[in-house]
Task: structure prediction
Amino acid sequence: MTPAECDRESDCLGPRAHLVGCPACREEYESLHALVSDEQATS
Ligand SMILES: [Zn+2]
Result:
């Protein structure tokens, strides 16, 4: 998926559905989520 397609899909599907269909964005989201979970666990 190209960045342009990614933008368009994100707009029409919404962020949640887009995360399911776009491996690149899901990976980014999961690494971000893991980071947040880490911070919560340590504090
Ligand atoms: Zn995407």
User: Anything to note?
Assistant: Residues 6, 10, 18, 22, 24-25 surround zinc ion (CB under 6 Å). Residues 23-42 form the longest helix (20 residues).
